[in-house]
Amino acid sequence: MTFIHTPPDKQSILRWLLSEDPAEIAELWALADATRKKYVGDQVHLRGLVEVSNRCERNCLYCGIRADNRELQRYLMLSDEILACAHKAVEVGFGTLVLQAGEDSSIEAQWLADIIRQVKEETDLAITLSLGERSDEDYQLWHAAGADRCLLRFETGNRELFDRIHPPLAGQSSDRLAILARLREIGYEIGSGVMIGIPGQSYESLADDIDRFRSLDLDMIGVGPYIPHPDTPLAGIGNRWDLPKGEQVINSVELGYRVIALARLVCPQANIPSTTALATLDGPVGRELGLQRGANIVMPNLTPLKYRQMYEIYPAKAASTEDAEQSCAAALRQIRALGRTVGTGRGDSPNLHKSI
């Protein structure tokens, strides 16, 4: 039988988000896995994650590294440490280095451009940036230095909710959808995504966001359940924003899998990671189930252990005590146990050269 992919409309997305029918959910898993196989194949690409800095000037209400969290020891990695992580990525067979940080202006644009350029001169790695909202000039400088991809999650398309949980910096506004459009114009492969189960997020709003992935034409999609952090305001005040009964999205690992599957159906050629949040909530099986329900990317952590536990966006993050070799070995075991193969090379999104 020939597999035919028909992307779901918003009402179908909403139905699957709300469904309590095991047969219907089993159909979703099967469709997502078949779509993944057809459009991105059986390879699972490995991205080496480096958490460059846990400093952040923003006060997002859900995030453990928010500026007002005084319980956290702050750090910025040295350039030599970042370069060592890049060489470790090559050593263990990764094709991409992901540089992630809070929104930290102490990461000077030229300093990072010099690191990007050196990584490109010394390795064949693709470079993904996940550094929050920066100026067009910074993004242009980093792209010219060799950065290939940029990830900026819009978290929720509900403007009122976004503004509530992402207080703007003084004198500035935040329009992440506009930034994503500019990143595309600059020449980046672009990625975005949402949190699942933010207090105040309705199923209708989440369905809108998943449908929005399609119109954004995303090359990468990162989604994960909201995990409360005790040192954040949202952990304590979320119940003040209760929606009518049955409308609030549940921040469950089950919903995380469903959103991954639906993201695969609406953007069949995107690269979609099976995230750390899934493993945090569901143990080692979380990453495996993500890969069986539409994901094709795994991001082992290369951050030096002395920094790893300080990058606590949410508590009890999985793999916070594994070194690079252990993290890679665990990922390889899971990939092979599923009968999948480890991807080679950069692992660019097929969406860049799509044929549908």
From TrEMBL:
<feature type="binding site">
    <location>
        <position position="56"/>
    </location>
    <ligand>
        <name>[4Fe-4S] cluster</name>
    </ligand>
</feature>
<keyword id="KW-0479">Metal-binding</keyword>
<keyword id="KW-0004">4Fe-4S</keyword>
<dbReference type="InterPro" id="IPR058240">
    <property type="entry name" value="rSAM_sf"/>
</dbReference>
<dbReference type="GO" id="GO:0051539">
    <property type="term" value="F:4 iron, 4 sulfur cluster binding"/>
</dbReference>
<feature type="binding site">
    <location>
        <position position="63"/>
    </location>
    <ligand>
        <name>[4Fe-4S] cluster</name>
    </ligand>
</feature>
<dbReference type="GO" id="GO:0046872">
    <property type="term" value="F:metal ion binding"/>
</dbReference>
<keyword id="KW-0949">S-adenosyl-L-methionine</keyword>
<dbReference type="InterPro" id="IPR024021">
    <property type="entry name" value="FeFe-hyd_HydE_rSAM"/>
</dbReference>
<feature type="binding site">
    <location>
        <position position="176"/>
    </location>
    <ligand>
        <name>S-adenosyl-L-methionine</name>
    </ligand>
</feature>
<keyword id="KW-0411">Iron-sulfur</keyword>
<dbReference type="InterPro" id="IPR034422">
    <property type="entry name" value="HydE/PylB-like"/>
</dbReference>
<feature type="domain" description="Radical SAM core">
    <location>
        <begin position="42"/>
        <end position="275"/>
    </location>
</feature>
<protein>
    <submittedName>
        <fullName>[FeFe] hydrogenase H-cluster radical SAM maturase HydE</fullName>
    </submittedName>
</protein>
<dbReference type="InterPro" id="IPR007197">
    <property type="entry name" value="rSAM"/>
</dbReference>
<dbReference type="Pfam" id="PF04055">
    <property type="entry name" value="Radical_SAM"/>
</dbReference>
<feature type="binding site">
    <location>
        <position position="60"/>
    </location>
    <ligand>
        <name>[4Fe-4S] cluster</name>
    </ligand>
</feature>
<dbReference type="InterPro" id="IPR013785">
    <property type="entry name" value="Aldolase_TIM"/>
</dbReference>
<dbReference type="InterPro" id="IPR006638">
    <property type="entry name" value="Elp3/MiaA/NifB-like_rSAM"/>
</dbReference>
<dbReference type="GO" id="GO:0016740">
    <property type="term" value="F:transferase activity"/>
</dbReference>
<feature type="binding site">
    <location>
        <position position="155"/>
    </location>
    <ligand>
        <name>S-adenosyl-L-methionine</name>
    </ligand>
</feature>
<feature type="binding site">
    <location>
        <position position="130"/>
    </location>
    <ligand>
        <name>(3R)-3-methyl-D-ornithine</name>
    </ligand>
</feature>
<keyword id="KW-0408">Iron</keyword>
